[in-house]
Design goal:
The structure holds 2 protein chains of 2 kinds.
Chain A: H1 3-10, H2 22-35, H3 44-71, H4 73-81, H5 84-95, H6 98-119
Chain B: H1 2-15, H2 22-41, H3 44-60, H4 71-89, H5 111-127, H6 131-142, H7 147-154, H8 158-179
Helix pairs in contact in B: 1-2, 2-3, 2-4, 3-4, 4-7, 5-8, 6-7, 6-8, 7-8
The chains are: A mainly alpha, B mainly alpha.
Amino acid sequence: MSSEEIDRILSRKGAIVPSSGFVDSVMHAVRSEASTPGPIPFPWRRAWPGLLVAGLAVVAVVVLSVVQVVAKPAVFAARLTSAPELRTILETAARFGVGWILLALLVALVSAKFSMRLAGT
Amino acid sequence: MVSASADQSDVERVLAGDVSAFEGIVRRWQGPLINLAYAFCHDRSRAEDMAQEAFLRAYRRLANWRREAAFSSWLFALATNLYRSEIRRVPAHTVRLDEVAEPRDPRAIDGGLEELDQERALRNAVATLPLKYREALLLFYFHDMDIPAAAHSLGLPAGTVKARLFRAREILRKRLARTVPQPRLKEAR
C-alpha cells in the first residue's frame, strides 16, 4: 500500500455524530461543577502564630536537653546508672529506635486531632 | 474566523460568571472532540465519556487559555492530553491483524469490497501500532495532515512528529504487505 493510499484512507473524517443528549449531559456536569463550593483553604493567617510558638517550644526543649547533657554528663550518667532495669530498657529501646517511633505516632495523632478540629468534625 | 470570535466571546462570558455560555462551546466542538476520542478508543460510548471529561476539564481551566493561541488549538491539546492518559490507563480494544477477515474468493473480488477490506486492514494495523506512533498518526490526520497543528496538540516538536509519522508509515507498509493480498491483474478479454 502506497503512502498516497494510506493518506487517502486515513484522512477520511470520522462519521460519529454526537448523541442527542450529549450537550445536556455536559452542561449538567458543568453546572454541578459550578455550584460546588471550592475546597476550604488552610487558615494560614490564624494558624501561623500557634505554629510558630510550637516550633519555638520544640526547639527550646531540644536545645535545653542537649545543653543539660553536655554541661553535666556525670549527673546524667549517674541518673541512668542508678536504675539498672531502667538502663536495660532504655538501651533496648534505643537499639530498636522506639523513641523515634513514639515521636512519629504522637505527631500523627496530634495532626489528626488538629485537622479534625479545623474541619469541624 | 466566525468560530474564533464566537469562542472568545463565549469564554469571556463564562469567565464573567455566565455558565450557560459554555453551551455554545460544547455545541461547536462536540463533533471534533468525540471523533478524536473515537480515533483513540474505537468505542462510541467511551468516546462520548472521554469528550465529556475533556469539556469539563476545559471549563475548569478556561482561565488558563492564553489569547495568542487559537481556542481550538488549546482545546485540542487539552483533549489530546486527556485521551492519551485515558488510553494508557485503559487501552482500547484492538483486533489482531491476523484476525481481519480475508476476502472469500480472491478471483471474484468486487472493487468496493476489496477497498473496504483494505481500509479495515489499515485501520486495524493503525490500532496495533505502538502508542507513540499511533498518537502521531491519529493527530496528523485529525488536523488534516497539518504537522505543526498535530505537534502542538501533542506538545511535541514538529521534527519529532515527522519522524514518528515516517516510522509509523514504515511499520504499516510492512505489516500490510504481509496480510493484505496484492490486487490481481484483470484478464484481457
